[in-house]
Amino acid sequence: MNREHHYRVDVAWLGNRGSGTSGYRDYGRTSEVTAEGKHPIAASADRTFHGEADRWNPEEFLLAALAECHMLSFLHVAVKHGVVVTAYRDEAEGTMEQEGEGGRFTSVTLRPVVTTEAPVDPEEFAAMHHEASAVCFIANSVNFPVHHEPTAVVDAG
């Protein structure tokens, strides 16, 4: 059964310094991302592209979306496999290549560290990450490889 889900966010540019986009260095790259009922997110371009370093940039949003989607998919898969996860963190990294004025991501590597209540067979653990990747909406929506380098840790209790 196919079901459609719709999402909405509002992005407002905050970088007009009084003369709009009269010149490449005359405007700020700051923006605010909002969605109904959620806290606003301060966003900008990457510092490399004249953005504000203390704000989230689109490249980080994409990387965070992939990492969080994999986490949520993995937690779902863990329940199906009867594996109790007690902690999860990921130190994800992505590579983007600039081509002229544009560019694209060429790969992302997720490095989830998953703590479980009891030991998990390494082959089952790897298969669970593969299954999670197969059902992750965001990973299925990108045109570059998303690699996984998971680490299993047993809860010391």
DSSP helix count? 2
Helix content: 10-25%
Radius of gyration: 19 Å
- Distance between the first and last residues' Cα: 42 Å
> Mean pLDDT score, rounded?
94
Unreliable spans are none
Strand order of the largest sheet: 1-2-3
Structural class by sheet pairing and helices: alpha/beta
Number of strands: 9
Main sheet attributes: strand count, strand direction, barrel closure = 3 strands, antiparallel
Structure, explained:
The structure is a single chain. The protein is of the alpha/beta class. The protein contains two helices and nine strands. The strands form three sheets. The chain has a three-stranded antiparallel β-sheet, with no helix packed on it. Strands 4-7-9 form a three-stranded mixed β-sheet, covered by helices on one side. It has a three-stranded mixed β-sheet with strand order 5-6-8. α1 (58-81) packs across α2. The longest helix is centred in the middle third of the chain and has 24 residues, at 58-81. The protein is elongated, with a radius of gyration of 19 Å.
Topology:
Elements: E1 10-13, E2 31-34, E3 41-43, H1 58-81, E4 85-90, E5 93-99, E6 102-110, E7 112-116, H2 122-135, E8 146-148, E9 151-154
Parallel strand pairs: 6-8, 7-9
Antiparallel strand pairs: 1-2, 2-3, 4-7, 5-6
Helix pairs in contact: 1-2
In short:
This protein has helices at 58-81, 122-135, and strands at residues 10-13, 31-34, 41-43, 85-90, 93-99, 102-110, 112-116, 146-148, 151-154. It is α/β, with parallel strands linked by helices and 157 residues long.
